[in-house]
Design a protein that fits this description.
434 Repressor (Amino-terminal Domain); 2 domains; alpha+beta; 10-stranded mixed beta sheet; about 20% helix; single chain; Umud Fragment, subunit A; about 210 residues; 5 helices
Length: about 210
C-alpha cells in the first residue's frame, strides 16, 4: 500500500472524516483528498510529521509492507532481536542474543521485538511482524510503547488519565483491536513493577 492508501485506511479505521483528519494534521481537506486519490505525493518530512500526530510508526504510514532491499554500505545497520512482545496479554519470550534485523540507518532504534497476538491489528501490527523500538523511559499520549509488567512485555498505545487536580491518576495501555480491554497501570494500588522500555518507531510487516 502507498501513502495515500494507508492514510485513507487509518482515517476510516478511526472513523474520521477528511475534515476531521485535516484538522488533526494541521492541513486542509483538499490536501487530504489529493493524498488519498494519489494526485499528490508528500515529502518525507510531511509523512514523518503525520506519523507523529497520528501516533503510528513512520514505516506504517509510508506503506512499507515488506523487508527492505539487501543492505548497502552506509545505508543499513543491524539491531538485535531481543525477544517477543505480546499484542494481547503480556508475555515475554527472551531471545538468545544471536538474531539481528537490518534497518535503515536513518531510523533511530535500539532493538527489535517480534509481535505476537492480535490486539494491535487496528494499527496493522500482526503476529510475526517485527517492531523496532527506541529505548526511552516515557512516551507521549497516543504513542505505541513496549511496556514491561513484572518482567512480561506487551505492546500498546499509552494514555494517561488525569485526576481532577491535574495529576496523573493512572495510565492505560490501549489495544487497537476492540475485542481487547485496556490494561490499567499505576495509581495508588499498583503493586506491579512497570517500566516503559521504549517507543515503537517502525514496523516490518510479514504479511
Amino acid at each position: 500500500m502507498e501513502f495515500g492508501d494507508m492514510l485513507k485506511a487509518i482515517r476510516k479505521e478511526r472513523g474520521l472524516s477528511q475534515d476531521e483528519l485535516s484538522a488533526l494534521l494541521g492541513t486542509t481537506k483538499q490536501v487530504i483528498s489529493r493524498y488519498e486519490t494519489k494526485q499528490r505525493v508528500p515529502r518525507l518530512s510531511v509523512v514523518a510529521d503525520y506519523a507523529q500526530k497520528l501516533g503510528v510508526p513512520l514505516a506504517l504510514l509510508s506503506g512499507q509492507r515488506a523487508a527492505p532491499e539487501p543492505a548497502r554500505e552506509g545505508r543499513m545497520r543491524s539491531v538485535p532481536i531481543i525477544g517477543g512482545v505480546a499484542c494481547g496479554e503480556p508475555i515475554y519470550q527472551p531471545g538468545d542474543g544471536t538474531d539481528f534485523a537490518a534497518i535503515e540507518a536513518g531510523i533511530d532504534c535500539d532493538f527489535a521485538l517480534v509481535a505476537q497476538g492480535d490486539s494491535m491489528t487496528g494499527d496493522r501490527i500482526h503476529s510475526g511482524d517485527l517492531v523496532f523500538i527506541r529505548r526511552q523511559e516515557s512516551v507521549q499520549d497516543g504513542e505505541i510503547a513496549a511496556v514491561a509488567l513484572d518482567d512480561e512485555l506487551t505492546l500498546k498505545r499509552v494514555r494517561r488519565i488525569l485526576a481532577p487536580d491535574g495529576r496523573v491518576a493512572f495510565t492505560q495501555l490501549l489495544p487497537s483491536n476492540p475485542r481487547y480491554a485496556p490494561i490499567n497501570i499505576g495509581g495508588e494500588d499498583e503493586t506491579r513493577c512497570v517500566n516503559i522500555l521504549g517507543k515503537a518507531v517502525a514496523v516490518r510487516f510479514t504479511l
